Amino acid sequence: MAKAFFRLQKFLRRIQFLLFFLTAAYLMAGSLLLLQRTRLVLQQGSRGTPSNQALPVLEGVSRVGITEPRTLQNPRPGPRLLVGMDALQEPALDQRHSPHWLMSRNSELRQLRRRWFHRFTSDQEPLQTAGFKAMKSTAEHKGTYMGCFTHDSRERTLKGAVFYDLRKMTVGHCQEACAERAYSYAGLAFGAECYCGNTLPAAAAKPEECGSECKGEKGSVCGGVNRLSVYSVQQLRAGARPRRNVIYRGCFRAPENLTDTFPASLTQTNLTVEMCSEFCSKKEFPLAVIRGQECYCGYPTRRFSLREGTDRQRCSGNHNASSAAGGDYCLVYQTPVQDTRCTDRKFLTTKSKVFVALSSFPGAGNTWARHLIEHATGYYTGSYYFDGALYNKGFKGEKDHWRSRRTICVKTHESGKTEIEMFDSAILLIRNPYKSLMAEFNRKYAGHLGYATDRNWKSKEWPDFVNSYASWWASHVLEWLKYGKRLLVVHYEDLKQSLIPKLKEMVEFLNVTVTEDRLLCVENNRDGNFKRSGAKQKNFEPFTQEMKDLINRYILTVDEALKGRNFSGLPREYVPR
């Protein structure tokens, strides 16, 4: 018995030593891999491509195509490759620099670009919250705590604007946001969600049920699970300008029966824009319509779509309500109140059978397109990446696994054969490369909503960025045209100019049926919370003539490839003539 026990003890000691040795080896290997990855990021991460790496230059439009010859599957840099910015100075004539080589060459840079993209996706968070920190000091906790109330997301009492900040939400932040939009009450739920309205919820809850701490403010209560902590914002509103955020929409022909078209109205002697806007804001309507001394409140509808404005002279030529002539025409203003008919969103109840991509080059308006699609369909969009800044602002599909099939479509900037063929169909969003490059450069240095400084534009980073990313803009479209199974090509410029017709095409492509009123609501909320604000860059030309020559050749290549696949070519406004 003792002998057997001794053998067992000896065996266990050997196993213990073996496990210790394997653990040490595993940790050493992981450390070496981490050090190697860090060195690569430090060397390459801050630039789209190293200064000594050559980039392809298109030879001409006569050889445009998207079929890749077998002989070019493994291209090697030839003697005609130019180095750094010198690549912009003369067109290469070697066959390796044709569009066929471009697609293959860009696959070598894809991993490098992914590192760059993910690095700045994670780094941009502090930049975007800088403005919030400044606001936090001024948006102090004002108003009165009204109590804890029940909250049903499907039948909300606070039906006004809805905001999310899943990392930095505070009571003051919510109150300030609601006050700017002329609401009387601010309600917080789940520690991170802010709801606005002018009517208190009817059903009160026990105080202890509102026990969720605000994500950005320790010690403050921000509701709970299906519970709202409601605060009044009267004190904040008292100091605000009465006409704040009121936007003139234009002069329009009045509908035949205004009382049937608009659910609320007011007749007032010496009616002003401020009076009408304040009245409609309290009623929680996004439109204030003035005809003479009559004020009407409502939404854009099929009977009053705001699509066909008329000459301002028909409304007396100015924006004073007292001078509006009445009769056949009326003045229309956008109140601070949000149109809530299209703000409800959810995940798909069953997994989608069709896996759809929303593909674009970075800076082509993918986030804006997602905003439009989510509000038009009522379903969240997913993402191949995880952008914490977008998730914190309400894009809940960011955190869902991109292959879960619970979202209506999935954002991606990828363009490799394997990545493309994973999707059953795709909406391919294309934007003017000049605008795309500038938008992505702004995002790199100032986040989704800011602008890069003059110092950034005049640094060496900008020409390096153009040198690398201009070719990616072209190869992204070419590869999706080649490998995409079912495509809907949407041009950013067309979507911006003709929002509802183009959005209808996108929604039909996604096999979702929506009402006309919902699309009009999307149009009313078209900018969302992701329109760039702040100080724009100064009026100077960031593109040199060499850059323009390079980008124009890529534009002609993509234009010809689109026509070769029976799609309409690029918008004529930026195709070189």
UniProtKB/TrEMBL annotation:
Keyword Repeat assigned to the entry: answer is: yes
- Please give the SUPFAM superfamilies that the UniProt record associates with this protein: P-loop containing nucleoside triphosphate hydrolases
Q: Where is the WSC domain?
A: 142-234, 245-342
Q: Which UniProt keywords apply?
A: Repeat
Give a yes or no for keyword Repeat in this entry.
yes
- PROSITE patterns named in the record: WSC (PS51212)
**Family the UniProt entry places it in:** Belongs to the WSCD family.
Q: Entry's PANTHER family? A: SIALATE:O-SULFOTRANSFERASE 1 (PTHR45964:SF8), WSCD FAMILY MEMBER CG9164 (PTHR45964)
What's the name of the protein?
WSC domain containing 1
Q: What is the lineage of its organism?
A: Eukaryota, Metazoa, Chordata, Craniata, Vertebrata
